[in-house]
Design a protein that fits this description.
69% helix; elongated; 225 residues
């Protein structure tokens, strides 16, 4: 399919819409959870992590947004089998985060009303979260940046955005892992007060969302498109 036909192909338009939808849901998740918990749950405190909102009054919203993200990723097919496989894997990881919640061991009324601890479910959740962000980093660094025969100036600019977003996600994963090790060893007590995991997850989600939003060609669009 030549470029002109590809641009007028309704399937391409739907793929752009799906990319934008994936980007919007990813970027909206932490914002919606915080605002919702403050407005409707009387919870003024930022939780330790985004996943901790599963145990607040925003549980259904948390699950719904992740499920919607998974649906969009399943529906997204891209242009080749690499897109399809990576999208399906990311969708499975999103569902893993939604339906296998992390443990809540520190009740924080009125935010978290009851605690829950299950080591197996907790492990599945963290594995899913790590896999989710790594797969999305792969999208940004390797799939979205695939070279065209004659890349436009806007395509080259978009590639820079994809790479920056991909590296930000990887950096956030590394910092979360480092903080977790430090915290378990009894350190990082000062850092704990600012809820670093929540903010690192938020930055990673915004990087992921912005990358997909850009891939939907909402910004840096070629002039002939």
């Amino acid at each position: 399919m030549n470029k002109t036909n590809r641009l007028s192909d309704p399937r391409v338009i739907s793929y752009r819409t799906l990319r934008r939808a994936v980007g919007i849901t990813g970027m909206a998740l932490p914002v919606v959870l915080v605002i919702g918990s403050v407005t409707f749950g009387g919870c003024m405190e930022i939780q330790n992590s985004i996943s901790s909102y599963y145990h607040t009054n925003m549980r259904d919203v948390f699950v719904a947004i992740l499920a919607a993200t998974a649906f969009f990723l399943f529906a997204y097919k891209g242009y080749n089998h690499k897109d399809n496989i990576a999208g399906n894997i990311a969708a499975v990881f999103a569902l893993g985060m939604a339906f296998f919640p992390e443990s809540a061991t520190e009740p924080l009324p009125p935010c978290i009303k009851e605690t829950m601890k299950n080591n197996v479910i907790n492990a599945i959740h963290y594995f899913s979260a790590g896999g989710f962000f790594l797969t999305l980093s792969y999208f940004s660094l390797f799939i979205f940046t695939q070279k065209d025969e004659n890349p436009t100036e806007m395509k080259l600019k978009r590639n820079k955005i994809y790479r920056i977003c991909g590296f930000i996600m990887i950096a956030c994963i590394v910092l979360i892992a480092a903080y977790s090790v430090c915290s378990k060893s009894g350190g990082c007590k000062t850092v704990k007060t600012i809820n670093p995991i929540f903010w690192l997850e938020t930055v990673a989600l915004w990087a992921f969302g912005f990358s997909w939003f850009t891939k939907g060609e909402t910004i840096f669009v070629n002039k002939n498109e």
